[in-house]
Amino acid sequence: MNNNSFLLPAKAICIAAFLSLNTVMYAQKTADISAISEKTLSNILEKNRTYYTQGKVADYIPELGKMDAKAIAFSVVGKNGKIFNTGDVHKKFTMQSISKIIALMIAVSEKGEADVFNKMGYFGTDKPFNHFSNLETTGKPLNPMMNAGAILTTSLISGEGEKPFLKILNLVRYITKNNTIDYNTSVYESEKSTGHRNRGMFYLMKNNGLISGNEDQLDNYFKQCSIELTAEDLAKIGYFFANQCVRFDGDSTYKNEELARLIQSQMLIAGMYEFSGEYARTVGLPSKSGVGGGIAVSVPGKMGIGVFSPALDQHGNSAAGYHMILDLVKQYNLSLF
Ligand code: DON
């Protein structure tokens, strides 16, 4: 018996062990999302309910400070648009920065990607959502997810006065199939009267030749941030971008694979602001947060997740919301990576 033939049985055992390990890993990778139920969600919600104590409700927009810190909701729109809800499912909150992905879709549909991204970057960030980067250096915003880029994006949507805002509102209504959705006028007034930092960005971009209109355009941004919806509506938005801009009920009026890819890439690299890198490591899914306490998540090709809990961590992302998403992702191996 030569050395090689002596090693053969050991080799065979190693290969068999490797293959079975691979099978186990593969099985985990394809965890059955059709097993997700309301019970799954409520277990995860209860486990994470108290995380709100580790965050703080945003009050830099005074009207937002009135939110009930204990409110919490968790929704999933899964295979074939099936909806699962748990928690304060009827509780409405303002979408805030989550509206930025809707505005981006409209601006790119109208102007084309090259035109929009000629005026801003595709960059990630280590800066908070309201940072002036890079307006004082390159003169252009880092990306369309931070406030500066989002204000610019909305200003690029065609139409006088309130028309660009109405396009955003109508698209949210379409995606959620919920015509009752509207904006909260108190939150809008509150942000308009205190949003001087955003006003500063608006005028700096006007000075840089990126914005040509008047303050109506900034008002449209304040209004889009004040659109009120539920966690279920957010899950439907997540589902829409996860499925090539096809609605949860299968309506494909806006089907556009390329646009969905663009929006999800921005969600992945900047949707959670300076936390996006760590979030990509832990959750690994395109997501967009808002200071109203919502997060919309796209699981590409599969499903949408919507969470709500208004107490925010130091990055401006929902504290309990993040942990609910993280647990669902771990339980069903939903990370892209
Ligand atoms: O412009 C603002 O500051 C708010 N209307 C939106 C900020 C926001 O939601 C940041 N996201 N976490």
UniProtKB/TrEMBL annotation:
Q: Which residues bind substrate?
A: S97, N147, E191, N198, Y221, Y273, V291
The residues the entry assigns to the signal sequence are 1-27
Instruction: Give the molecular function GO annotations.
Output: glutaminase activity
Q: Which residues cross the membrane?
A: none
What EC number(s) does the entry state? 3.5.1.2
For this protein, the record's Pfam families field holds:
Glutaminase (PF04960)
Hydrolase found in the keyword field:
yes
Gene3D superfamilies xref list: DD-peptidase/beta-lactamase superfamily (3.40.710.10)
Please, one GO biological process term? L-glutamine catabolic process
Quickly give the catalysed reaction. Answer: L-glutamine + H2O = L-glutamate + NH4(+)
Provide this UniProt record's keywords sorted from A to Z: Acetylation, Hydrolase, Signal
Q: Which domain of life is it from?
A: Bacteria
Q: Which family would the database say this protein is a member of?
A: Belongs to the glutaminase family.
Q: How does it assemble?
A: Homotetramer.
> NCBIfam families in the record, alphabetically?
Gln_ase
Q: What is this protein called?
A: Glutaminase
Organism equals Chryseobacterium elymi
